[in-house]
Amino acid sequence: MDILTLILVSIPSGILGAIAGLGGGVILVPVLVMMGVPIKYAITSSMVAVIATSSGSAAAYVRRKLTNIRVAMFLEVFTITGAIIGAILTVYIPPKPLYFIFGLFLTASLISMRKRISEELPIVEKQDRISSWLRLEGDYFDENLGMIVRYKLTNALLGGVGMVFAGLAGGMLGIGAGVFKVSVFELILKMPSKPSSSTSNFIIGMTALAGASVYLFSGLIQAYFVAPIVTGMLIGSMIGARILNKLSNRTVRIIFIMILLYAVIQMLYRGVTV
User: Fold this and answer.
1) 75 CA to centre of own chain
2) How many CB atoms lie within 10 A of CB 4?
3) Per residue in 93-148, pLDDT tens?
4) Which of 23, 41, 210, 270 is the most exposed place for a label (fewest CB within 10 A)?
């Protein structure tokens, strides 16, 4: 497989990953496998590429104040905890039923997200006490709406539990948990789609860094193969970061729903064939 092909294949994954807040691995891994890449190398390459996606888009998102760093730091604690627990439980629990369990969770998220597809911005009338104490709120300039959008998050503890669940999914199944994280942001915490995607990208990069370190010492990361994928994903993520704020929140949500549907099908397929 030549370098140019790998770069061109990775660019669309980087664009969609940056826009939807998924890192791009959920799209890239199946494509690489269909092209004949062994699954282990596809997963490890994707893990390193997610760091590139996060790095490429994070700087732009933070500069535009789309990323809510306070929220990211709060939820990252729960995500890492879930990932550690998931990695430990993997030794004792077979993966087959897990695909169906997490697949059902994503299906419920898909249905809930579908009901909100026409909603441009979520409305939080009143924060719960913990969310208010933690000051889980923010604002950003929406280029599509031409106005500053101020938002407040709610259900902080329930969102933390959801992030533990997202970490479990990543730790137990070895998948990127971006679809779970964005679902928690939008459905539980009531975060607008654009800061939801950008904050998810920020968190994913830090989580992937830990996983990539393990893969590096295991010898599964091959520089000659990973380098063009990282290059393509980085280019794509920088393009996606420029596009995101020009789209409507509804469009971002539609893109996420399409990828979420794809993830549900992939999850259930793995459950049947694993």
Assistant:
1) 13
2) 10
3) 776 777 777 777 778 777 777 766 767 677 776 788 898 898 898 888 888 888 88
4) 210
